[in-house]
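Input (structure):
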């Protein structure tokens, strides 16, 4: 199997485990939407695309790393995934889309590669436990308010070699 199709398991609230072989390259839109019991901790290593809404409201998944082959992550792909505490983004990822980690309330650590050139509006909205961020070196467009309601956010590190577009600031932070 190379692809998990769009809406393949949408609303399967009792689905507890999916073992995806490393041959899976694409997870379709809304593939696992609201699979509340899903306890996925690792993504296939040959994955290249995670489509929009792929894991929305999968409150028990606990992945900590997105494979380095992933070049595209869709909007809201991991929204409301409350069991994610740390996320290491792939080395070739250029765009962090809007709402991608929306209300991942237990997310504490985000590791962004230097390849990131864009951070979308509300990308980390309501990630209440992030207290420190390191923006990637180079030019990075920041849309809207990607860190709104990150109530524990105290420090953002911007290297001297980083240039950002003006953005709305950070609302709802300390």
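Output (sequence):
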């Amino acid at each position: 199997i190379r692809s998990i199709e769009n809406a393949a398991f949408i609303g399967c609230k009792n689905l507890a485990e999916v073992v995806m072989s490393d041959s899976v390259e694409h997870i379709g839109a809304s593939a696992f939407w609201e699979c509340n019991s899903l306890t996925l901790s690792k993504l296939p290593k040959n994955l290249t695309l995670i489509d929009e809404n792929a894991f929305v409201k999968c409150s028990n998944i606990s992945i900590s790393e997105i494979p380095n082959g992933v070049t595209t992550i869709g909007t809201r792909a991991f929204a409301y995934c409350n069991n994610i505490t740390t996320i290491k983004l792939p080395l070739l990822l250029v765009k962090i889309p809007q709402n991608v980690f929306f209300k991942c309330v237990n997310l504490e650590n985000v590791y962004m590669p230097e390849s990131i050139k864009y951070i979308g509006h509300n990308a980390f909205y309501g990630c209440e436990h992030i207290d420190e961020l390191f923006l990637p070196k180079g030019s990075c467009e920041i849309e809207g308010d990607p860190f709104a309601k990150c109530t524990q956010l105290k420090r953002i590190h911007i290297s001297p070699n980083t240039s950002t577009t003006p953005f709305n600031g950070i609302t709802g932070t300390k």
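Notes: The radius of gyration is 15 Å. The chain has a mean pLDDT of 92.
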